[in-house]
Design brief:
By secondary structure, this protein is α/β, with parallel strands linked by helices. Helices cover 44% and strands 12% of the residues. The protein has 17 helices and 11 strands. The strands form 2 sheets. The protein has a 7-stranded mixed beta sheet, sandwiched between helices. Strands 8-9-11-10 form a 4-stranded antiparallel beta sheet. α6 packs across α14, α7 crosses α9 and α15 packs parallel to α17. It starts with a helix and ends with a helix.
């Protein structure tokens, strides 16, 4: 066996040289994209062509081209014309905390495999609990994404609220949760993973403004009971992913208390508004909840993927995954908050607390306030731009940095309008200057923007609207011809 290869793999001087080259490359990329001098947000290729390119690269590509090619062939979230999915334009410091986490590779299942990040995680979660409005009994964990965090919260809810031991003995009767029909699809997925089935998710309709219809909570709850479903939890969206509209958390909290239900808030996207002096009112009632999810990689400028799950009563963060693993998880009578493997679905997880801790240390909570407030304000300004232009129609008045709209043409029927807006989005994707996404609400196809970059301005958004009108005119002219 040639052991020289392993020496090459772990050569520190090679790492130093490659690292310096990469940092320079990334710094130049950051400068170009933030300034808007990069002409494209995405260089679109269809999947088969992209696959073929990388197959060729693996066989005969020049190694020195690897990092430049990655930059060329990925979506640039730091470009002010990126208004697409709900991921942050991450603060550059996150690249450095990510690097140290990757090189140290402490898995964090037990305290000695991640002493520093475990202590930081406790401090971050305690701070979030305080800002939510919980008392000192609250505890939290960091985990890999909102989907996993929401699943964990609902498992905790079932453990706490259902009399039978489902974890060890399985289901003995029908169980269910209540949630808005506009809630993120991961809630539906969690219910299916938990084995509750289609009947186990009671989807409550939304109002004309896309917030959960609190007047329908009681009749939908009673109907579920009539059908033999034991409802044990209710989820409030803060906000809904498709619309960015917040549910009435105050009303949901009161309903949950009335029926002794676990109240969970999916604040993966907008929970960070607890730091915004201007917009924290949107989360009024969050303090009534039993658990809250907040993503660091959405509105808090961190790299993917890091999510906080905070419990009002810390004991619930310790009981969800009770099991025996003598080689790793030993029983203790005291609260061993420092052994994360007992408290998360994950055993191994990244040192994600470094992102949160260093952001707080370097910039303080004010950075979170400014980011949320700047982006939510921008959405309100974008709303006014759209209202002044007869070519566009808003789906709703925005509450957050998510806004849905569509191009209008009075000569087209509803199906033709849907097709036109779908085509506009595809043309923009292939053009690559702007990156936005799409959604369907009540059968109507909308263009959907999530304003994630604090350096996006109304001028950028005006340019995008002009481009959309130009694309629409060309598409309609082609259709007529």
């Amino acid at each position: 066996m040639d052991e020289k290869l392993l020496n090459t793999v772990y050569n520190s001087e090679s790492f130093r040289n490659q690292g310096h080259t990469l940092i320079d490359l990334l710094a130049n990329h950051l400068e170009r994209t933030l300034s808007g001098s990069s002409p494209k947000t995405i260089h679109w290729k269809n999947p088969e062509d992209e696959l073929g390119l990388w197959k060729d690269f693996l066989e005969q590509g020049n190694l020195s081209d690897f990092f430049p090619q990655i930059l060329q062939r990925t979506t640039h979230t730091h470009n002010p014309k990126y208004v697409g999915h709900q991921v942050a334009a991450p603060a550059p410091i996150g690249a450095l905390t990510g690097m140290i986490g990757s090189i140290l590779n402490n898995g964090m299942a037990v305290y000695e495999m991640g002493m520093a990040p475990t202590a930081m995680e406790r401090m971050v979660c305690d701070l979030l609990g305080e800002r939510i409005g919980y008392d000192t009994n609250s505890r939290g964990i960091l985990t890999s994404g909102g989907t996993l965090a929401n699943l964990t919260a609902l498992l905790s809810a079932r453990k706490a609220m259902v009399d039978t031991d489902v974890w060890n003995n399985g289901h003995t009767h029908k169980l269910g949760i209540m949630v808005s029909e506009e809630a993120h699809y991961c809630v539906d997925r969690a219910v299916k993973i938990m084995g509750l089935g289609e009947a186990g998710i009671i989807k409550v309709p939304v109002t004309d403004t896309y917030t959960i219809d609190v007047e329908k909570l009681e009749p939908y709850y009673q109907e579920a009971k009539k059908n033999g479903v034991e409802v044990f939890a209710i989820v409030g969206s803060a906000p809904s992913t498709a619309t960015g509209i917040y549910d009435d958390l105050e009303a949901i909290g009161q309903f949950a208390e009335k029926h002794n239900l676990w109240f969970h808030v999916d604040g993966a996207h907008g929970g960070a508004a607890i730091f915004s002096k201007k917009y924290k009112h949107l989360l009024s009632g969050i303090q009534l909840s039993d658990s809250v999810v907040i993503d660091g990689h959405k509105m808090m400028m961190m790299p993917t993927i890091t999510t906080a799950l905070i419990f009002k009563e810390g004991k619930h963060s310790h009981t969800t995954f009770t099991q025996k693993a003598d080689y790793l998880l030993t029983h203790t009578d005291e609260e061993d908050w420092y052994n994360g493997g007992k408290r998360t679905f994950e055993c191994t997880k990244s040192m994600m607390s470094l992102h949160w801790f260093l952001m707080l240390k370097m910039y303080g909570e004010e950075a979170f306030d400014q980011n949320v407030t700047t982006l939510y304000d921008l959405a309100m300004d974008f709303e006014q731009l759209l209202k002044k232009d007869d070519h566009f129609e808003l789906a709703f008045e925005p509450q957050s940095n998510i806004l849905c709209f569509r191009y209008l043409d009075d000569a087209l029927n509803p199906e033709e309008l849907n097709t036109l807006n779908q085509s506009i989005r595809q043309v923009l994707l292939e053009d690559g200057e702007f990156y936005l996404v799409q959604t369907k609400l009540r059968g109507i196809h909308y263009l959907r923007t999530t304003l994630m970059n604090p350096f996006t301005t109304t001028e950028h958004l005006s340019q995008m609207l002009e481009k959309i009108k130009s694309v629409a005119e060309k598409l309609l002219a082609k259709q007529l011809s």
